[in-house]
């Protein structure tokens, strides 16, 4: 299993993906699931994958081959609109699955893969598409400015609560990291390292990218801060009706009765003979 999330905001795109791949309980490996295709000044694409690893690698290899072939009339470099690129990538994905199905027919292994494609072509605004195993695709919307593939349920709540089209690119990236961190905490099939990439609108290249390990200071700080703040938020939630009365009872039962005020004898007047010693 895997988990990848793509986010679209007014400022650009955020991509985040884990790297854990498992063929069985005792065969866990690290593979990159985020693939970058950069043609600076003209266009940039990021593809993230979930599903059969062999199918994904065949699909990415075919996309790279077509893009590098100067004679190719259909490639990542030839289309003028992002939705046309999404349709083309869907066709390559379907063809790869058909080829893999013939080879894996006897094993009963699923050869399906699902992709997230995002990027920008010069003259257009950035966009984000999910490409299904059948080759069809959907795009983000103002109501749902993110797409998920893989083990998505654990990391979804923060995306629904925080993300808006006007969310800054850096805040969206932090949401993506917390979404992945929550999934890693709850599901063993998703694991570190995490790859993250940002495309700022108009840059036509990957603006920032990094890989985060368990000992990466930024990831460790985000992990600890989120856990601490979340716990504090729970403690700060409104009290139940019975809680104030109970608190008053506990305070009353534990309080010590006040001692009477101490009486202090008046100091003798030095001019009074009755106060002198005998």
UniProtKB/TrEMBL annotation:
<keyword id="KW-0647">Proteasome</keyword>
<dbReference type="GO" id="GO:0000502">
    <property type="term" value="C:proteasome complex"/>
</dbReference>
<protein>
    <submittedName>
        <fullName>20S proteasome subunit A/B</fullName>
    </submittedName>
</protein>
<dbReference type="InterPro" id="IPR016545">
    <property type="entry name" value="UCP009120_prtse"/>
</dbReference>
<dbReference type="InterPro" id="IPR001353">
    <property type="entry name" value="Proteasome_sua/b"/>
</dbReference>
<feature type="region of interest" description="Disordered">
    <location>
        <begin position="245"/>
        <end position="278"/>
    </location>
</feature>
<dbReference type="Pfam" id="PF00227">
    <property type="entry name" value="Proteasome"/>
</dbReference>
<dbReference type="InterPro" id="IPR029055">
    <property type="entry name" value="Ntn_hydrolases_N"/>
</dbReference>
């Amino acid at each position: 299993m895997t988990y990848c999330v793509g986010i679209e905001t007014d400022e650009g795109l955020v991509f985040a993906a884990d790297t854990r791949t498992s063929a069985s309980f005792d065969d866990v490996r690290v593979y990159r699931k985020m693939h970058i295709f950069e043609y600076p000044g003209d266009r940039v694409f990021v593809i993230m994958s979930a599903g059969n690893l062999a199918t994904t690698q065949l699909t990415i290899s075919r996309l790279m081959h077509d893009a590098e072939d100067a004679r190719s009339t259909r490639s990542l470099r030839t289309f003028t609109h992002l939705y046309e690129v999404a349709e083309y990538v869907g066709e390559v994905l379907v063809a790869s699955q058909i080829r893999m199905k013939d080879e894996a027919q006897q094993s009963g292994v699923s050869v399906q893969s699902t992709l997230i494609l995002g990027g920008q072509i010069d003259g257009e605004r950035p966009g984000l598409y999910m490409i299904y195993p059948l080759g069809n695709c959907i795009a983000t919307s103002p109501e749902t400015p993110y797409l998920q593939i893989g083990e998505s349920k654990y990391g979804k709540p923060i995306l629904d609560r925080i993300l808006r089209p006007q969310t800054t690119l850096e805040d969206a990236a932090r949401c993506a990291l917390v979404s992945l961190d929550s999934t890693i905490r709850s599901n063993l099939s998703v694991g570190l390292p995490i790859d993250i990439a940002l495309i700022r609108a108009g840059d036509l290249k990957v603006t920032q990218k990094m890989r985060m390990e368990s000992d990466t200071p930024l990831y460790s700080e985000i992990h600890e801060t989120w856990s601490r703040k979340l716990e504090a938020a729970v403690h700060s939630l409104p009290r139940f009706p019975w809680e104030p009365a109970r608190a008053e009872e506990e305070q009353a039962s534990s309080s010590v009765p006040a001692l009477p005020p101490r009486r202090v004898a008046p100091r003798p007047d030095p001019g009074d003979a009755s106060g002198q010693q005998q």
